Amino acid sequence: MGCCDRRCGLIAGAVLGAVVATLGGILIPVGNKIIKETVEKEAVIEPGTKAYENWAAGGALVYRQFWFFDVQNAQEVLQNGSAPVVVEKGPYTFRTRYLAKTNITFNPNKTAAFLLPQGAIFDPSMSVGSEEDQITTLNLAVAGAYAVVPPALHIFLQLRIKATNSSLFQTRSVRELLWGYSDPLLKDIVGLFAGYNETYDGSFNIFTGKDDISKVGKIDNWKGNKKLPFWNDPYCDMLNGTDATSFPPFLDKETPLYFFSSDICRSVSASYEETVDLKGIQVYRYSLIPATLASPVENPDNRCFCKSMKTSKNCTLAGVLELSACQQGRPIFLSLPHFLHGSQSLREDILGLNPNEEQHKTFLDVEPTTGFTLNFAKRIQVNMMYGPSKVITVLKKVKDYTTFPLVWMNETASVDDETAEMFRTELLSSIEMLGIIQKSLLGTGVTVFVICLISYCVVRRNESKIA
Known about the structure:
Strand content: 25-35%
């Protein structure tokens, strides 16, 4: 009876192990289904969901940090045609996008419309100085007028420049350069971001994901347009992806993320770079690829972004995007800071630039299960261009078209500690606990089953020897 009891016990143990392992195996698809349904429910943009709470309120605090390029040899440039030497000054930090979305309207086609208020509040604690700090930089009015006035009319521009005692460079405060000043040449308010405060970005119309979670956050139209009105090309005028604050859940590392930025008037994509730990949360880091601003010679898809053969050196210049079409004709040129990934000639024309991948790249840290962006750094540089003139005195020594860096900006936001803790406890910890239970049941069941099966075989063999 003893041997029989032992064998029966081992068989029962093996059966129990098999049952436990099977339960663990069953829990995997069941648990995954529960997780999927829970995440998809909370990712829909509608009142009552986690996604809506974060989306409507504006999410994490957003800061814009500005670094200016201070000209060290203005007189040598004017008198000898020397290359400008610049020194970076900054950061000057402002809190932006601190207001909740307004005019939120839900539409029958499962989209939501809204306006995004814009404003900027100076934060001296995160700045190297005050808004009254003085910067010597390119004269925005002279460079702007030069870009739009035909060479045949330069004589009239020269008379105006002389009458107002304007020059190629000027010294202004940080406040004036950013938010505007009264310029004598143009008799108007001039500034890099003049008119930014108390305005709105949008309107945006995005999919809520109510019927199709794979479309959540994707832009349906911007300012009433389903395609951009700037580039006169089907490819370049595409409105792709979201506004980068969130993406459809359950990210695939192999699939790029697409998003539209009104600051650069185009859609771009970012590719998976690495997995990083953000306050105890595993996130996927996506970065813009160098081909984004490559010349059409290297990336033919960018051909439609090349607007001027003259200023782009016959569309061979890499790293610069002309934005005049979407800046009311203002001759603004966008690049990455310090002309990162740009043509070498850009850094030869301006001395003192030092591009650095880690400091100057744009990236997004996205939680892969929910698709929420928990940390980002959007880094762009604002430039203007000037060139030679036989008539305008301050440009007679200029040898070729020069793309001059005015300021580079780092717009950044990161999930705060309280939100990160909520994220970990209310969502990720439940997912992790379910995964631990699944693996524990499966592992324990298999172990018990194997041990009991082996023990049963050993007992049977020993019994056979005795018999």
